[in-house]
Amino acid sequence: MKRIILFIAFVACSVLSVSAQGQRIFLFDNFAKGLVQFKNKAVSASYMNYDANNGKMYFQQGEDLMELTNAAAIDSIKFGERIFLGYRNNFVELFQLNHGKVRILWRIHKIHEGYEGAFGTTSQVGGQKIQLQGNFGMGGIAGAGGGMYNGSFGLNQNDGNNRRIDIWKQKSANTYLFEKNGKEYSVKTLKNVYKQFPEYKEQIKAFVKENSLDMMSADKAIVIIDYLLSL
């Protein structure tokens, strides 16, 4: 009876969503076992993955791919030591830093740069797209602990004449949420950081330059935020 109640609680937060979304960029290389803790204390487990392009949490139910909705009803989702929290209508990943905590609202996009031309140069002309086969596509996300693509976009694929086409670049658009001196802040770029913390601008600039940092990858961004929290 208890298992039935937990299953109903889990599915009540879910909708079938195999074809509703466009291109997906999953945060993990493979669907990983996630332990879902609901705010009503119910607990459920399933193989899950987070789509960092569309901001959707998916889980596998048999042969079906389901979307986990109603994030407000979820307290946390644990993938081993990695923890996601329900946040408004989405999910954020919680990181413990040396001087505080940061929550990452993951957003990773693929930007089409062009097609590979003569001598390895990038051209904006011609080339066909390659349809990836299967449910989840292929690929990887640097700085995000893995990742896989899902969509009808060529990922530096070869055409029939062994020429590479369709050059794509990943773009990070993460939002970083944290508290400092009892106030919550939200930043995406270094410009945001400088604007919201003008009193620390020169110190942060020097730290960023000295350590070759930027906000284009999560691993570097959280180093900047941890330094900010130490000031």
Short overview:
With 231 residues, the chain is an alpha+beta fold.
What are its keywords?
231 residues; 11-stranded antiparallel sheet
* General shape: elongated
| Average pLDDT | 74
What does the main sheet amount to?
Answer: 11 strands, antiparallel
Strand tally is 16
Please characterize this protein's 3D structure:
There is one protein chain. The chain has helices at 2-12, 190-196, 201-210, 218-230; strands at residues 14-16, 24-26, 32-38, 43-51, 56-61, 64-68, 74-79, 82-87, 90-96, 101-105, 108-116, 122-123, 148-150, 167-172, 175-180, 183-187. The strands form three sheets. An eleven-stranded antiparallel β-sheet has the order 1-6-5-4-3-7-8-9-10-15-16, with helices on one face. It has a three-stranded antiparallel β-sheet with strand order 12-11-14, with no helix packed on it. A two-stranded antiparallel ribbon has the order 2-13. The protein has 231 residues and is of the alpha+beta class. A hairpin with a 2-residue loop joins β8 and β9 (90-96). The longest helix has 13 residues, at 218-230.
